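Anyone up for a design puzzle?
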């Protein structure tokens, strides 16, 4: 673990322990982004909901805010948040602005990873259901941190939201951040969490899911080895796995997904400023 990375994890822990409220992610109310919606100071906020999902609520200064994940397919314009406060329900509006994501073309030698065989489909569908269950399960525990150290030392080799083509065929947009690193590089929990699922998935390869509370879930894919088990509580900076090249890949890297209220959002919005520069190769 580099000295720079050690300092980042220490800084993240200090930020979390200082003010009694987690530092907020960068607000970017676009498809695939995060809306930070002020909820006011009066009364105790019990719940907030967006698009049929409960959303993360935390204190910010003297008030409350909702931290809302916005799906990539969201329409531009006004959207509504339903808030329950002191037994009363109210509606708050926020705006979603447009964003254009880049296109990426990848060539895979294993054509089965582009067009799976019919016999692969039951496995793929079952794995998609398992992942969806993990991403949409609500746990009342509040995340201790909302700004992260990057889970692995490496270069951002694939940004969130890329419109992807495999062997010339269009596929779903990229649902996370790819960080290129050699096989065997340690993968560390960016913030404390609970291991809720592990497995060897058809597309994702060896995978770990961490639940950080209130619908904030992170996923780590294409791993070479997994060093945790379901039910483990992990600390920030703890090794959970190593980088590999399992599943649908063109080389060794970590695919890192951050999910809020059941939808994948841009992980870069959660990185500490120094980490954003380091992952971009600007350290």
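Challenge accepted. My sequence:
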């Amino acid at each position: 673990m580099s000295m720079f990375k050690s300092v980042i994890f220490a800084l993240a822990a200090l930020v979390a322990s200082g003010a009694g409220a987690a530092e907020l992610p960068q607000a970017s109310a676009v498809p695939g982004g995060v809306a930070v919606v002020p909820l006011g100071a009066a009364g105790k906020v019990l719940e907030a909901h967006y698009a049929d999902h409960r959303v993360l609520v935390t204190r910010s200064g003297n008030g409350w805010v909702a931290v809302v994940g916005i799906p990539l397919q969201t329409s531009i314009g006004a959207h509504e948040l339903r808030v329950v406060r002191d037994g009363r329900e109210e509606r708050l509006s926020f705006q979603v602005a447009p964003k254009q994501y880049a296109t990426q073309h990848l060539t895979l030698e294993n054509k089965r990873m582009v067009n799976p065989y019919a016999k692969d489909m039951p496995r793929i569908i079952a794995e998609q259901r398992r992942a969806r269950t993990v991403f949409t399960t609500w746990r009342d525990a509040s995340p201790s941190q909302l700004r992260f150290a990057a889970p692995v030392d490496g270069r951002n080799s694939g940004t969130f939201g890329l419109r992807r083509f495999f062997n010339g065929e269009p596929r779903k947009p990229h649902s996370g951040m790819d960080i290129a690193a050699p096989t065997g590089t340690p993968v560390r929990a960016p913030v404390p969490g609970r291991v809720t699922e592990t497995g060897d998935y058809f597309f994702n390869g060896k995978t770990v899911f961490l639940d950080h509370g209130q619908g904030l879930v992170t996923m780590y894919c294409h791993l070479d080895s997994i060093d945790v088990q379901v039910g483990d509580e992990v600390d920030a900076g703890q090794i959970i796995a190593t980088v590999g090249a399992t599943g649908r890949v063109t080389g060794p890297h970590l695919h890192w997904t951050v999910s809020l209220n059941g939808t994948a959002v841009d992980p870069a919005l959660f990185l500490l400023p120094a980490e954003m520069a380091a992952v971009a190769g600007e350290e």
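A detail worth pointing out: DSSP finds three helices and 20 strands in the chain.
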